[in-house]
């Protein structure tokens, strides 16, 4: 679906690669109204995305026609459930250019990161020598960045507390980009793992991962890429990425809640001890001890979130039909337009890169004299859903000296009309609170 | 627009011209409360004279609702005894749980004075914690100050 639709008026409104009206028809929730009959302008896909009908249908079809626990049972339904579950794994693998044996299903990005963090500390005390290869301990260092979501920061702080390792981080520039000036010293021979986001959930910045991956591998460190905000919005191929782990969530990419993905290079996954243990992940269990399955099963203990995994498979197929390059180009056009329009409003400051260079469709901003919660409340009254607060990236808002920001995020169903509504909404907030610069008290 | 039901003029007045703002000496207890979902914070001090709250002083950053709430609270509790202030806090909590039921606000008008204007906030679940943050801080600080004095 690469229909080019010309949209009316507006000099900066370049034609969008995606057919917004056709796509909106696929999302049942977008036909509802909010706050006294207003059209829903959903600009909070960065928190969680809405779901197209094909994803909802896939989950319903599973429960209505195939429901059984996968990988156990000898009956027909169990066979079908296993087949659908594994087909979804293959689809997710294809989506990121990975073999299915390297795709582990988790509950979400947060759990995927915790899986790796706990595997690295469990490694130190693993009974099997093969599992101790990546053990983290005293004297070792873990490197993160100042722009990480709490999910890619707190688990590493905790790993360091458990093991006596040291947490180090790369700082930010005033424009909201990674400051790589001291990359060579922060990432050094003691570094065991570098955890970095591909796209900041708050600043929108897309990071230059090649340099970071190259430096990390030069010193023998593993690299974990947080793809929660990139995999849903741009083509990501794990071979090109060159990292050791990639983590992302289903619910931010049109899929259900309750399913996330850990991709890991097989050789690395195979050397990691399990995080959660129990059924499904074992090879042989005796009272004296147990042995474990190879990846990915080793990391999928218990009956999995089968319907959600199948729903994610359908989400991936939906995105593939649109084409991820088109999705990226679509959001880039909207982002350029929105940055221009928002920054033209006196009193509005964008926190993050001011243009579309190496930047995704997450725009955080402040409105002088109005707290983000109050901006969000006025927008909500107009039917516009945005995120307000620190966006689970508290060090970032602290770095930029603001208590919080208002954040708009775009996706496949976002059109110029949504951006126009946002811009008008911000102006309405300024009028409501009497902070329109012309009227502002000196 | 339904916004006016929450952003009453009284609330916006308190927000723009907060009463009693600033940290003052002396004080028997100081607390720091944070709303972890949005990062709003308040530092609040209580100074007792016997059982009576002689002063409440505070600094903080946050949305209009949280900032107006602490200002209205200052007006309500200074000069009252600690048990009276805590009872007023309970009334305010009741108001916040009223889900926009006007009869609750009517019944509490005498006890809550200006603060009854926050009734509209009770219709917005996400904002109730903004209005309650300062009252939680007061409860905490006065309990500590009370322990210190008695």
Structure characterization notes:
The complex is a heterodimer of chains A (442) and B (150). Chain A has 442 residues and is an alpha/beta fold. Chain A has two domains: 20-52 and 324-432, Aspartate Aminotransferase, domain 1 (Alpha-Beta Complex), CATH 3.90.1150; 56-320, 3-Layer(aba) Sandwich (Aspartate Aminotransferase, domain 2). Chain A is 35% helix and 16% strand. Chain A contains 14 helices and 17 strands. Chain A has helices spanning 20-24, 53-66, 76-95, 109-122, 154-163, 183-186, 209-218, 238-241, 266-270, 306-322, 324-343, 372-381, 394-399, 416-432, and strands at 33-34, 38-39, 41-42, 103-106, 141-145, 166-170, 191-197, 222-226, 245-249, 260-264, 282-286, 289-292, 348-351, 362-367, 384-385, 387-389, 405-409. In chain A, strands 4-10-9-8-7-5-6 form a seven-stranded mixed beta sheet, with helices on both faces. Chain A is globular and about 70 Å long. In chain A, 52% of the residues are buried. Chain B is an alpha+beta fold and 150 residues long. Chain B has one domain (3-145): Sufe protein. Chain: A. In chain B, strands 1-2-3 form a three-stranded antiparallel beta sheet, with helices on one face. In chain B, a hairpin with a 2-residue loop joins strand 2 and strand 3. In chain B, helix 2 packs across helix 3 (64-77), helix 3 (64-77) packs parallel to helix 6 (125-149) and helix 4 (82-96) runs antiparallel to helix 6 (125-149). The N and C termini of chain B lie far apart (50 Å). The model of chain B has no long low-confidence stretch (mean pLDDT 93).
Give the tags:
A: 442 residues, Aspartate Aminotransferase, domain 1, Aspartate Aminotransferase, domain 2, 2 domains, 7-stranded mixed sheet, 4-stranded antiparallel sheet, globular, B: 150 residues, alpha+beta, Sufe protein. Chain: A, 3 strands, 51% helix
Largest sheet of chain B: 3 strands, antiparallel
| Cross-sheet strand order for the largest sheet of chain B | 1-2-3
Are there runs of chain A of 5+ residues with pLDDT below 50, and where? 1-11
Our count of domains of chain B comes out at 1
| Domain unit count of chain A | 2
What gross morphology of chain A would you assign? globular
For the record, give the distance between the C-alpha atoms at the N and C termini of chain B, rounded to a whole number.
Answer: 50 Å
Q: Which blocks of ≥5 consecutive residues of chain B have pLDDT under 50?
A: none
Any idea what the radius of gyration of chain B is? 14 Å
Question: What's the CATH architecture name of chain B?
Answer: Alpha-Beta Complex
CATH superfamily of the largest domain in chain A: Type I PLP-dependent aspartate aminotransferase-like (Major domain)
Report the strand count of chain B: 3
Overall strand count of chain A: 17
């Amino acid at each position: 679906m690469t229909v080019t639709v010309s949209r009316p008026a507006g000099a900066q409104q370049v034609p969008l690669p995606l057919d917004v009206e056709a796509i909106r028809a696929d999302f049942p929730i977008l036909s509802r109204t909010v706050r006294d009959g207003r059209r829903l302008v959903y600009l909070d896909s960065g928190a969680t995305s809405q779901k197209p009908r094909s994803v909802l249908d896939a989950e319903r079809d599973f429960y209505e026609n195939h429901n059984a626990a996968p990988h156990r049972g000898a009956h027909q339904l169990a066979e079908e459930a296993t087949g659908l579950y594994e087909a979804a794994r293959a689809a997710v693998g294809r989506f990121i250019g990975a073999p299915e044996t390297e795709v582990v299903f988790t509950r979400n990005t947060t759990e995927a990161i915790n899986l790796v963090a706990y595997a690295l500390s469990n490694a130190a005390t693993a009974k099997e020598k093969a599992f101790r290869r990546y053990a983290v301990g005293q004297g070792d260092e873990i490197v993160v960045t100042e722009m990480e979501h709490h999910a890619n920061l707190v688990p590493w702080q905790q790993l360091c507390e458990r093991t006596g390792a040291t947490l180090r981080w790369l700082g930010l520039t005033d424009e909201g980009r990674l400051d790589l000036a001291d990359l060579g010293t922060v990432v050094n021979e003691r570094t065991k793992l570098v955890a970095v986001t591909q796209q900041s959930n708050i600043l929108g910045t897309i990071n230059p991962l090649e340099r970071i991956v190259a430096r990390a591998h030069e010193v023998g460190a593993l690299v974990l890429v947080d793809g929660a905000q990139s995999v849903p919005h741009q083509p990501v191929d794990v071979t090109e990425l060159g990292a050791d782990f990639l983590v992302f969530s289903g619910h931010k990419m049109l899929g259900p809640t309750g399913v996330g993905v850990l991709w890991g290079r097989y050789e690395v996954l195979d050397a990691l001890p399990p995080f959660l243990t129990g059924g499904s992940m074992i090879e042989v269990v005796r009272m004296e001890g147990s042995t474990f399955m190879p990846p990915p099963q080793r990391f999928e203990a218990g009956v999995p979130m089968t319907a959600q995994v199948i729903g994610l498979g359908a989400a991936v197929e939906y995105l593939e039909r649109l084409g991820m390059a088109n999705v990226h180009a679509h959001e880039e056009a909207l982002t350029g337009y929105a940055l221009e329009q928002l920054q033209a409003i006196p009193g509005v400051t964008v926190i993050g890169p001011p243009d579309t260079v190496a930047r995704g469709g997450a725009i955080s901003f402040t409105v002088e004299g109005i707290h983000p919660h109050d901006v969000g409340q006025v927008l909500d009254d107009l039917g516009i859903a945005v995120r307000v607060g620190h966006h689970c990236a508290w060090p970032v808002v602290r770095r930029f000296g603001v208590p919080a920001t208002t954040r708009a995020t775009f996706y496949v169903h976002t059109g110029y009309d949504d951006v126009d509504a946002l811009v008008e909404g911000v102006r309405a907030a300024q009028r409501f609170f009497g902070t329109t610069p012309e009227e502002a008290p000196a | 627009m339904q916004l006016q039901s929450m952003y009453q003029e009284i609330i916006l007045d308190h927000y723009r011209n907060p009463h009693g703002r600033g940290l003052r000496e002396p004080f028997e207890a100081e607390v720091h409360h944070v709303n972890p979902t949005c990062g709003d914070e308040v530092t609040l001090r209580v100074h007792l004279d016997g059982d009576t709250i002689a002063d409440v002083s505070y600094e903080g950053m946050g949305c209009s609702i949280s900032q107006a709430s602490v200002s209205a609270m200052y007006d309500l509790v200074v000069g009252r005894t600690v048990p009276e202030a805590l009872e007023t806090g309970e009334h305010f909590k009741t108001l916040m749980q009223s889900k926009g039921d006007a009869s609750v606000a009517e019944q509490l008008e005498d006890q809550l004075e200006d603060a009854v204007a926050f009734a509209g906030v009770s219709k917005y679940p996400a904002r109730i914690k903004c209005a309650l943050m300062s009252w939680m801080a007061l409860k905490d600080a006065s309990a500590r100050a009370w322990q210190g004095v008695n």
